[in-house]
Structure formats: C-alpha cells, structure tokens
C-alpha cells in the first residue's frame, strides 16, 4: 500500500543508534530502547544498514544514547568481565534457522572456539556447516552473540564482519581473562 499523501510516511521500526568507544574501534549499538538489535563497528556502517534493511525492512535510526545495559556490559567485558554480555537482551530478527544458529552461539564459553561443523551437528544438521557459516556471517549482534568464537575446521580464523584482526583480538582478550590472568 502506498503511503497517504495527507500524512508523511514513517517507517514501522524506530531504532536508536548509539556510538561507544572500545579498545578495537567505535562500536555502533542499535536498540529499540529495550533490546539490542545490532552491534557493528563504525567502519562497517554501510554493512550495518544493509543488514538492518534485510532483517526489518523499513526502519529509522535516531542518534541517541541507548539503554544502559549494553553499554555497561561492553565496558565490563572489555575490562575483563566476560560474563557481562550474557545479561544483554537481544532481538535479532532473521529466519528461524538464523535465530537457531545465533542462539547456539551464546553458550559457547568465552576463551574457547568451536567450528561451523560442530555447530551444525549441535543443531542436528551435521551436513549444514555452510548454512551455519552463512547464518553466522549474518549475525547482527556481534560480540554479544559471539560469532567470533567460530573458526574453520582446521582452527583457522575465518571471516568476521568486523575484520579478522578484531576477531583475533577478541579471542586473545577472552583467553587472557578466561584463564584467570589479571593484567595490571
């Protein structure tokens, strides 16, 4: 249905866009005021917009400080409290299969990795490692939904929407704190 000429068209989903500094670059936090809808790095903003369009269709972003929970959890995570991200509510959209993959990512313990094949097997779809890889790559809430913890069958770092350097940094950061080491 075409928008009425008597009133301005407005997208159905109103979202907040918050920018947060981190040790690996400025993070864009997109929320609906309650749940985190997307987390991308500032240098990947065009990718964020494409992903939001795919997931939600029409949307509007208003620059504003979002809910405190994601900001505080990220600060705590970068300070070494790796469990802080577990408390962040997310709303991801996506297909049923994508949501199943994304839900399977959250319980992967910080400081550890799994493979696309193992993740596919856990989901009861052992031959679907490529589909798991595509779903993993479409994860709109990186770090919080830890797609960086998935590696290739040979343990190599493979694709990460924020760049392989960031994936390596995140895994090193988690290993450092998961092992009980304290940096002074």
From TrEMBL:
Q: Quick one: where is this thing mainly located?
A: cytoplasm
Entry-linked PROSITE patterns? MGMT (PS00374)
Task: Name the reaction it catalyses.
Answer: a 4-O-methyl-thymidine in DNA + L-cysteinyl-[protein] = a thymidine in DNA + S-methyl-L-cysteinyl-[protein]; a 6-O-methyl-2'-deoxyguanosine in DNA + L-cysteinyl-[protein] = S-methyl-L-cysteinyl-[protein] + a 2'-deoxyguanosine in DNA
Alphabetical list of NCBIfam families matching this protein: ogt (TIGR00589)
Task: Specify the Methylated-DNA-[protein]-cysteine S-methyltransferase DNA binding domain's residue ranges.
Answer: 96-175
This protein's record includes keyword Heme: no
Instruction: Name the keywords, alphabetized.
Output: Cytoplasm, DNA damage, DNA repair, Methyltransferase, Transferase
Organism this protein belongs to: Plastoroseomonas hellenica
Q: Which EC class heads this enzyme's classification?
A: transferase
Pfam family for this entry, one: DNA_binding_1
Localization per Swiss-Prot or TrEMBL: Cytoplasm
Return the similarity comment. Belongs to the MGMT family.
State the protein's purpose. Answer: Involved in the cellular defense against the biological effects of O6-methylguanine (O6-MeG) and O4-methylthymine (O4-MeT) in DNA. Repairs the methylated nucleobase in DNA by stoichiometrically transferring the methyl group to a cysteine residue in the enzyme. This is a suicide reaction: the enzyme is irreversibly inactivated.
* Residue intervals of the Methylguanine DNA methyltransferase ribonuclease-like domain: 21-91
Q: What's the protein called, per UniProt?
A: Methylated-DNA--protein-cysteine methyltransferase
Q: What is its EC number?
A: 2.1.1.63
**Lineage summary:** Bacteria, Pseudomonadati, Pseudomonadota, Alphaproteobacteria, Acetobacterales
Q: Give the residues annotated as active site.
A: 147 (nucleophile)
The record's misc note reads:
This enzyme catalyzes only one turnover and therefore is not strictly catalytic. According to one definition, an enzyme is a biocatalyst that acts repeatedly and over many reaction cycles.
